[in-house]
């Protein structure tokens, strides 16, 4: 298998620096070992490899390509090209770091060893976990096989299934169109609503909307946990005559009868409800990748167990985590990973210098939620689900400017600043825009704990 082969990129000349010699064998040893080179891992690897000598940072990452996943919502609606959402991994990984192109398969935090898919063991002084999430379509009976046989099934969360989304929207001629949200933490939970609003708009434009019943079947009890943005989204749903069914979790897809079976999470008995579908957009259940979920690094929910402010592991002080794989109770987005990177950098530096971590992450997360082609609300909030807005105007209002920001500006920030470790979120901009008054809006009711589901 291609991925099973260990490729050490950029380290041929430096090999002797990266290896320490034991009497019996050469062993690969890094000062900082980063697992995963997605949004969070790539950014943190750049931050540290620019400070440390070449060969002191190692990155374990199996994929050949790096994707800007937020673009997939637009790809699904035919508003962006899938090919433009990715770059070769070799182009985004820092040149001064060693790229071990394989999977991390086992973690021994007591011995500071990560075992690779090749069987090789890599030693580290400090470990940064950034493996993101695994998509578990197979937890839904009938999937993922159903995607191969039923053209009305699609999903913007997966590289292959996002390509089925536009044809499925275009081929829909009326009937039931269902969009789902699972009962696990997921990345960017705004994405299922965005593709729904864009599909609705397309069906309106081609004149079939009055033949369609659109359902948003969500495992959550609310549309969004930040009240300010929930208020806007409820208006959008109402305006578009979309039916929301709360506490409905997709458990089975019968492609032969075109039925989607949902578990009723609000029912004391294990009741299910069946919906006939003519179009089904599936947001899959997600978890950390199996090797992480089965490691000693995780809490009882299977996410890397870190302090929610310092991002330092609660048991192993030389381990940190950022991005979707950690158990910090905020929404899982690139925007959150970027902000966490700034705090992680400060705290890991402190620990490397024999000090205590001091920088405290406030749970900042953000997602531009597209409500129609050309309009967007920019949600930004903290651990308390209080709005923490960058701009000095009401971001819960649907605006063209925020859409242009999402489509044209944020991707540039991502590729040219975040991935290079140069973007720690918009905190400084927020201060400037609010004339030095930085802080959440307090006049909103909020839920206590969102556990990454927002
Ligand atoms: C459709 C969609 C829309 C989105 N929209 C937005 C948005 O508008 N705004 C926003 O901020 N965010 C959005 N996101 C979420 C955002 O993409 C993620 O939150 C972000 O990528 C998380 O970064 P990460 O580094 O934790 O994980 P990822 O970027 O997913 O990277 C994880 C990396 O770890 C690697 N890996 C996995 N297992 C192993 C292993 N065993 N060993 C080594 N490496 C491993 C993977 O190959 C991958 O490269 C969206 C996501 C999707 C899918």
TrEMBL record:
<keyword id="KW-0274">FAD</keyword>
<dbReference type="GO" id="GO:0005739">
    <property type="term" value="C:mitochondrion"/>
</dbReference>
<protein>
    <recommendedName>
        <fullName>Sulfide:quinone oxidoreductase, mitochondrial</fullName>
        <ecNumber>1.8.5.8</ecNumber>
    </recommendedName>
</protein>
<dbReference type="InterPro" id="IPR023753">
    <property type="entry name" value="FAD/NAD-binding_dom"/>
</dbReference>
<dbReference type="GO" id="GO:0048038">
    <property type="term" value="F:quinone binding"/>
</dbReference>
<keyword id="KW-0285">Flavoprotein</keyword>
<dbReference type="InterPro" id="IPR015904">
    <property type="entry name" value="Sulphide_quinone_reductase"/>
</dbReference>
<dbReference type="GO" id="GO:0071949">
    <property type="term" value="F:FAD binding"/>
</dbReference>
<dbReference type="GO" id="GO:0106436">
    <property type="term" value="F:glutathione-dependent sulfide quinone oxidoreductase activity"/>
</dbReference>
<dbReference type="GO" id="GO:0070224">
    <property type="term" value="F:sulfide:quinone oxidoreductase activity"/>
</dbReference>
<keyword id="KW-0560">Oxidoreductase</keyword>
<comment type="similarity">
    <text>Belongs to the SQRD family.</text>
</comment>
<dbReference type="GO" id="GO:0070221">
    <property type="term" value="P:sulfide oxidation, using sulfide:quinone oxidoreductase"/>
</dbReference>
<keyword id="KW-0809">Transit peptide</keyword>
<keyword id="KW-0874">Quinone</keyword>
<dbReference type="Pfam" id="PF07992">
    <property type="entry name" value="Pyr_redox_2"/>
</dbReference>
<feature type="domain" description="FAD/NAD(P)-binding">
    <location>
        <begin position="30"/>
        <end position="147"/>
    </location>
</feature>
<dbReference type="InterPro" id="IPR036188">
    <property type="entry name" value="FAD/NAD-bd_sf"/>
</dbReference>
<comment type="function">
    <text>Catalyzes the oxidation of hydrogen sulfide with the help of a quinone, such as ubiquinone-10, giving rise to thiosulfate and ultimately to sulfane (molecular sulfur) atoms. Requires an additional electron acceptor; can use sulfite, sulfide or cyanide (in vitro). It is believed the in vivo electron acceptor is glutathione.</text>
</comment>
<keyword id="KW-0496">Mitochondrion</keyword>
